[in-house]
Design goal:
Radius of gyration: 19 Å
CATH class of the largest domain: Mainly Alpha
Largest sheet: none
Keywords: DNA damage, DNA repair, Glycosidase, Hydrolase, Iron, Iron-sulfur, Metal-binding
Function: Adenine glycosylase active on G-A mispairs. MutY also corrects error-prone DNA synthesis past GO lesions which are due to the oxidatively damaged form of guanine: 7,8-dihydro-8-oxoguanine (8-oxo-dGTP).
Number of strands: 0
Number of helices: 12
Strand content: under 5%
Structural class: mainly alpha
Shape: elongated
Order of helices and strands: HHHHHHHHHHHH
CATH architecture of the largest domain: Orthogonal Bundle
Family: Belongs to the Nth/MutY family.
CATH superfamily of the largest domain: Helix-hairpin-Helix base-excision DNA repair enzymes (C-terminal)
Cofactor: [4Fe-4S] cluster
GO molecular function: 4 iron, 4 sulfur cluster binding; 8-oxo-7,8-dihydroguanine DNA N-glycosylase activity; adenine/guanine mispair binding; metal ion binding; oxidized purine DNA binding; purine-specific mismatch base pair DNA N-glycosylase activity
CATH topology of the largest domain: Endonuclease Iii, domain 2
Number of domains: 2
Length: 229
DNA sequence: GTCCGGTCCC
DNA sequence: GGGACCGGAC
């Protein structure tokens, strides 16, 4: 017996992908937020921001990001710090396993990778604290690779625009949303595009009270207009 | 009080 | 597949 599979969800055709990219990038250039980790390509700075942004909103991360980089300006500095000090500095962001994992990545980078963060997906995923989302973020933001991302914001945006109905959190849906994230990814402007996806989900296509009036996709959004028909 | 969230681990 | 982690938003 073949395993039960959900209905096959189609990926958007080339014109639809292109419209989405163009619209989203135009929105981002006009409305995207100016955040400090969007002005750097330093892998250490990118990694610190991404670990902090796991389960933590931008407004709470901003001051801690600056404090952290002031205190631990490099992988070497973080690797050499006392663990208790590192955990204390992290407060009150929460999920206090994260600073320990960040420091262990720093120590690994210093000991085994010449003080650099590895850029290949398999090595990034081998670090505790780096999962599929953070690996994609690091590859695209720090190393300029054409890597897709899927965090909760991106998943919500892609689900609403291109799918609109079904179980948003099912395993099959998440697999489809990863495929969508890869399918819509442009060849150029990958950094801006991925930042735009997250920014759009965080500020317009929000979980509660989405700002559809200000959404440049509203006329083509499957969720807003009804997925079928 | 209830929901939310990336990753790890069971 | 489901719970733990830790705080904030509503």
């Amino acid at each position: 017996m073949p395993r039960k599979t959900g209905p096959l969800l189609p990926l958007p055709d080339a014109p639809a992908r292109r419209r989405f990219r163009t619209t989203l990038l135009a929105w981002y250039r006009a409305q995207g937020r100016d955040l400090p980790w969007r002005r750097t390509r330093d892998p250490y700075h990118i990694l610190v921001s991404e670990i902090m942004l796991q389960q933590t909103q931008v407004d709470r991360v901003l001051p801690k990001y600056h404090e952290w980089l002031g205190k631990y300006p490099s992988f070497e500095a973080l690797a050499a710090a006392a663990e208790d000090d590192v955990v204390q500095t992290w407060r009150p962001l929460g999920y206090n396993i994260r600073p320990r994992r960040l420091q262990s990545i720093a120590r690994e980078a210093v000991s085994n990778h010449g003080g650099q963060l590895p850029s290949d997906e398999a090595t990034l995923l081998s670090f505790k604290g780096i999962g599929a989302y953070t690996a994609g973020a690091v590859m695209s933001f720090a190393f300029g690779k054409r890597a897709a991302i899927l965090d909760t914001n991106v998943a919500r945006v892609l689900f609403r625009v291109f799918v609109g109905e079904g179980e948003p959190k099912s395993h099959a849906m998440l697999k489809h949303l990863w495929e969508l994230s890869r399918a819509v990814l442009p060849h150029k402007h990958v950094f801006d595009f991925n930042q735009a996806l997250m920014d759009f989900g965080a500020t317009v296509c929000t979980a509660r009270k989405p700002q559809c009036l200000y959404c440049p996709m509203r006329k083509r959004c499957a969720y807003r207009n009804g997925a079928s028909t």
